[in-house]
Specification:
Blueprint: E1 3-7, E2 10-12, E3 18-25, E4 32-39, E5 46-52, E6 57-60, E7 68-73, E8 78-83, E9 92-100, E10 114-115, E11 119-123
Parallel strand pairs: 2-11
Antiparallel strand pairs: 1-3, 3-8, 4-5, 4-9, 5-6, 7-8, 9-10, 9-11
């Protein structure tokens, strides 16, 4: 049973930082891609960043590149999203998700099979 549990969301002022965590269990962590998505009210879920386990590379949405950093701790089976210089437009529910290595583009939510429950990020 795959389980993803996000944490670390909260309310910050513009220019502030947050670090999101996603604890993963129940599958072969090293053979997947993991991603962060976000969804603001009234908007579609969008890909924020993704990382290919085993050193396959990282990917970012243009809107967060240079401000957000995705990383993982293999020993802890935990995915992170360091978010710096936060802006009001970053306000959304943030989700982590996992998918097989093979498939379509990293930002396609439909490619991801398992999702966490989300953690809210509010920037004012």
């Amino acid at each position: 049973h795959v389980q993803l549990v996000e944490s670390g969301g909260g309310s910050v002022q513009a220019g502030g930082s947050l670090r999101l965590s996603c604890a993963a269990s129940g599958y072969t962590y090293s053979s997947n891609c993991m991603g962060w998505f976000r969804q603001a009210p009234g908007k579609e879920r969008e890909g924020v960043a993704a990382i290919w386990n085993g050193g396959g590379g990282t990917y970012y949405a243009a809107s967060v590149k240079g401000r957000f950093t995705i990383s993982q701790d293999d020993a802890k089976n935990t995915l992170y999203l360091q978010m710096n210089d936060l802006k009001p437009e970053d306000t959304a529910m943030y989700y982590c998700a996992t998918r097989p290595l093979n498939g379509g583009v990293w930002y396609a939510a439909s490619e991801y099979r398992h999702w966490g429950q989300g953690t809210q990020v509010t920037v004012s």
